[in-house]
Amino acid sequence: MNIAIIGYGKMGKEIETLAIQRGHKIRLIIDKHNLLELNDKNLEEIDVAIEFTTPETAYDNYLKCFAANVPVVSGSTGWLDRFNELKKYCINNKKTFFYASNFSLGVNILFEINKQLARIMNQFDNYNIEIEEIHHTEKLDAPSGTAINLANDIINNIDRKEKWTKENETIESDLAIKSLRKVKIPGIHTIKYESDVDTLLINHSAKSRKGFALGAVLSAEYVNGKNGFFGMNDLLNF
């Protein structure tokens, strides 16, 4: 495939390396220094665009790619208040979009395990629940989008939990998400169920950005030639 990389930070560079290793060609790279080069002419020979940018630029980047009939794979966050709007646009205009808050295959398997475990633990109200996420010090947002997704899936499946809170629960219906920032930690997410007699943990620990980049490239391969609105559940056939 001919791939465009939109957003050329650490993730963009890792995606470039993996895409080339898997036999693809990087035909266009867009970052903050050449935004005007994201246009119909430069997108003519692009099969898929992989987009990791900012909340301020992501949505417009999608529309520019769609205008050139280029499918988009994106992991940008902060624009999700327009998620349903974009989904409707894609369906009505037959565009192709693949979105994930986290492209790690392991994390998305964790999402499924987390939902199943929550359904089981809904029967046992003697367990309190807590989420901890640890990331590198360059990550400024807290809690992470992945931790919030994990929390929402627990809340949707456990009757005694109503909302997530940062750091500490103030009432029993709260689900606390604790956030830590440490040097050179790509990402660790832990869900803990604790009672008076035991502790049950499920955990995912990323070793590098490579796992996230691989998921993005696999997603680009998945949407090539397809039409519609996709996510990691489609890629992993959940």
What does this structure look like?
- This protein has 238 residues and is α/β, with parallel strands linked by helices.
- It folds into 2 domains: 2-103 and 210-235, Rossmann fold (3-Layer(aba) Sandwich); 105-205, Dihydrodipicolinate Reductase, domain 2 (2-Layer Sandwich), CATH 3.30.360.10.
- The protein has 7 helices and 11 strands.
- It has helices at 10-21, 58-67, 83-93, 105-121, 145-157, 210-223, 232-235; strands at 2-6, 25-30, 48-51, 72-74, 96-99, 128-135, 163-166, 174-181, 188-194, 199-205, 228-230.
- The strands form 2 sheets. It has a 6-stranded parallel beta sheet with strand order 2-1-3-4-5-11, with helices on both faces.
- α3 links the parallel β4 and β5.
- The longest helix has 17 residues, at 105-121.
- The model has no long low-confidence stretch (mean pLDDT 94).
Number of strands: 11
Strand order in the sheet with the most strands = 2-1-3-4-5-11
Tell me, briefly, the overall form: elongated
Distance N to C terminus: 26 Å
Q: In terms of structural class, how would the helical and strand content be classed?
A: alpha/beta
Based on the structure given, which CATH architecture of the largest domain is correct? 3-Layer(aba) Sandwich
Query: Could you name the ranges where pLDDT drops below 50 across 5 or more consecutive residues?
Result: none
Fraction of residues in β-strands: 15-25%
> What is the total domain count?
2
Q: Write out the CATH superfamily name of the largest domain.
A: NAD(P)-binding Rossmann-like Domain
Q: Tell me the name of the CATH class of the largest domain.
A: Alpha Beta
| Count of helical regions | 7
Element-level helix/strand string:
EHEEHEHEHEHEEEEHEH
In helices, the fraction of residues equals: 25-40%
Mean pLDDT across every amino acid position: 94
Q: Biggest sheet, open or closed, and with what strands and sense? A: 6 strands, parallel
Q: Within the CATH hierarchy, at the fold level, what is the topology of the largest domain?
A: Rossmann fold
Radius of gyration: 19 Å
